[in-house]
Amino acid sequence: MDKYFQVKVLPQTPEPQRVIYAALHQDYSEHFVWDELTTAKDSFLLADSDLLMAFSNGNESPFSVWDGPSEAKCGQVAVERLLKGGRGHWGPLEHPQIVFNCGWFPHSTMQQIRTHRHASFDVQSFRYSGKRFLGAYDQIGMLDLDSKDPDIIQELFYIRPAGDYTDRQGKKYTVTTEQREEDIEYCWEAIRRYRNRVVRDGYSEEHARSMIPFDVRQHWVVSCNMRSLIHLLSIRGKTDAQMECQQWAELVLPHFKAWAPEIYGYFEQHQWKKGRLAP
Predict the structure, then answer these.
(1) β-strand partners of 222
(2) Structural domains in the chain?
(3) For 124-171, how does the pLDDT look when each residue is reduced to its tens digit (9 = 90+)?
(4) Which ranges constitute the DSSP H helices of 115-174?
């Protein structure tokens, strides 16, 4: 795992398995599920301000008036009635939402993840975020070539470790330590060219970004519903997926487990690393 990769959770739907349960229950219930599953039998008894307080108070659940099964039990029911045995009733899983902040991944990883258009993305733009390249030049630009700290460069650009590799077509090759050092030097030269174009020649960041190597590290925000999350993890966590995408998926897993433990348990047992997709 690359030491710089990070995945953090921004807002997420609280108690998502209760949301899923309410949705699946409404599918076959004769009644309005609010009346069945809450202690506030008259929806007018719960003011909007009360709901807002429930969401904003860390010690309160937005389901504080919930009179249905527990979050864990709702997750068990969702697995039994929607997923188990290949039932494939994925629709109710589309209601809970989760938002991730992903940091220091190579541009190619972002591109691979972003091909899934059932998730929403906001991605760091290099039209406006070039100061870090100039800062790196200021740190190492006056040093001798043999004295450069490679960590300064590798915090900006992702360079795969030395080692043996195999691609999807079965091509096998080895990246040596010497070759990797050459790649680090290439990235340094790119920083120098970028700096000269911006500072010396007056290029805009939008123009000068063409000097930047493809796998510059990039931050992004991605949001999706639980069904889409399972799809993303299934297809990008496969053993033949891009190595860095697999690492991204591995960093997402603990957040999924903490968010919806019972549904995560089913996913881990039946779909993780198996290439079976949520449709």
Answers:
(1) 100, 121
(2) 6-121+217-270 (3.30.1360.170), 145-211 (no CATH)
(3) 998 888 889 998 888 876 555 455 667 889 999 999 999 999 988 889
(4) 131-140, 150-154
